[in-house]
Write a structure and sequence with these properties.
This protein is 7% helix and 40% strand. By secondary structure, it is mainly β. The protein starts with 5 loop residues before the first strand and ends in an 11-residue tail after the last strand. The mean pLDDT is 81.
C-alpha cells in the first residue's frame, strides 16, 4: 500500500455455539501480522458511527487501511477479527472498499472499535 504501512497483529475469532446441547466457548487463533495503516476517525465520522451504533458502546474508534481481507463483526455470523493497536484490542466492525479508481488505491478501509468486554461483565486486560 504505502511506505506508512506497519505490521499489526490480527486475531481471528470463532463463533461460540451449542454442540450436543453444550455451549462451546468461542476461540481465538494465534495472531497473524497484517500490513496496514491505523488512523484516528474524524469528528464527522465518529458522529455518523454513533448514529448507527445499534446497542454497541463506542469508546474509541479508528480506521485501518490495508490490502488484507479481515472478518467483520456481524457479517456471515462472524464475531469479527481483533486488531491490536497500542496494546488495545479493536474489533473490526465495518468496511469500505476502494478499488474503483486505479491499482494505486486498491485497499480496504475498516472501522475498528475498542473492545469493551470479552465476556459479559468482563473487561479486557
Amino acid at each position: 500500500m504505502s511506505s506508512f504501512d506497519k505490521p499489526f497483529p490480527v486475531i481471528a475469532r470463532s463463533v461460540g455455539m451449542y454442540v450436543d446441547g453444550v455451549w462451546t466457548v468461542p476461540t481465538e487463533a494465534a495472531p497473524v501480522m497484517v500490513m496496514g495503516n491505523c488512523q484516528p476517525v474524524t469528528a464527522t465520522e465518529y458522529d455518523k458511527m454513533k448514529l448507527e451504533d445499534y446497542g454497541r458502546r463506542i469508546e474509541h474508534a479508528r480506521k485501518f487501511y490495508t490490502t488484507a481481507k479481515l472478518n467483520i463483526a456481524g457479517e456471515n455470523n462472524s464475531p469479527g477479527d481483533i486488531l491490536i493497536y497500542r496494546d488495545k484490542r479493536y474489533i473490526v466492525m465495518g468496511e469500505a472498499i476502494y478499488d474503483a479508481l486505479s491499482d494505486l488505491t486498491n485497499h480496504n478501509r475498516y472501522w475498528l472499535f475498542e473492545e469493551i468486554a470479552k465476556e459479559l461483565g468482563e473487561r479486557p486486560s
